[in-house]
Every structure is written in C-alpha cells, then in structure tokens.
C-alpha cells in the first residue's frame, strides 16, 4: 500500500467488461486530497465506467480500488453504499434529484440517512442552498426549477456531508453554457473550500479547464496524465 498512502483514492490495474466488450483495461490512477482531476476522452472510452468503479457503484472485474486503506473491490454492496452516503459525493449529468421532495428535503436526505435529526439536517441543507444561491428555492420541488437550479441543488446534496471525494459525471452536459459555468465555478470553489477531491468526467475541454490535472482515456486505457497548464480555473 505504500504507493497509495498519499492518495485519497487510487486505482490499480482496474479492468471491467460488459460481455465481450472491454470498458476498462488495466487502468491505474491516483487522486490526491483536494485535487481536481478531469477525465476526458471520446464517447465510449470508459470514462463513466471508471467513475462508477472508483465510487463503488460498480465492482471491477479485476484490479483494486483503494480508499483510506480499504480495497473497495472487496467490499460488500451495503458497505459501498454507505460510503456513497458519507465519504463520497456523486453528481450526475441530470442531477437525479428526487421529484417528490423539495430542494431542502433533497439536500437534507443524505444527512438524515446518516442518522441526523430532521431539524439539524434541514438547517444544514438550507445553509448549502444559500451558499449555492438557491436558498429561495428551499420549499420548491424540482419541477418548479430550471435545469441549472436543479443541478445546484444536486451539487448541494453531493457536498452536504463534507465528502472526501466528489465524483461528477458530465455535470454540465444538460445545461446551457452560462448555467454550466455557474455550476462548475460553484463546484470548484466549494470543493476547494472543504478540501474535497474531485473526479470530473467530461468530454468538453472547457469543463476540463477547471481541473488541476487531466487524464485522457482511449479504448478503456489511460492515454495521458498530466497537469493542466493554467493550474485550473479559480
């Protein structure tokens, strides 16, 4: 484990296939505390599968995924689900906020699942909504919000537990350019503020520019891994 002790999360020779199709082929990478890493590449290159394996949504067919001394590939589904409620935040392209819950209830949900009382969870959720500029929507349901507003609610929900790692899969893919920039700027600012590492999957070079480092994938393999010249967008 000496090679991974400085990393918040690390993959070692991870492989994953769907039937005869290889999605990941011996992928190794590390993500440091507070680091923002963009994973880029053409559609079908394995970006989302990698995110799903690192976040414990999928179990790799081979290889190891280490997080704080634990090999997630050997953990049960229940244990991996618990990590996604506590140590990991996950943000998808379409947010996946719960349609029947208000914005405040959506953001409070991970805290309640972790055992927090409703009043405490609701107060914390409201602070995060205010931080993201959507506090006035606390009592509204997703159907009453724009796409950008929904995604900011989803970002608040992903960060509300103070996760060690935020996994963001094409988080601005369904938004117009202005709303996308607003979500990305908030994501970077808040993640840096609480030292959360971010794995940002995208096919868009403008989105990747917000990262500190870019990993390019092709045909299920890491093609390149290097620092972004500008050092990320503040």
TrEMBL record:
Keyword Cell inner membrane (UniProt): no
Keyword Protein transport: no
Pfam family, one: ABC_tran
CDD domains: ABC_MJ0796_LolCDE_FtsE
Tree of life domain: Bacteria
Domain ABC transporter: start-end pairs: 9-233
Protein name listed in UniProt: ABC transporter ATP-binding protein
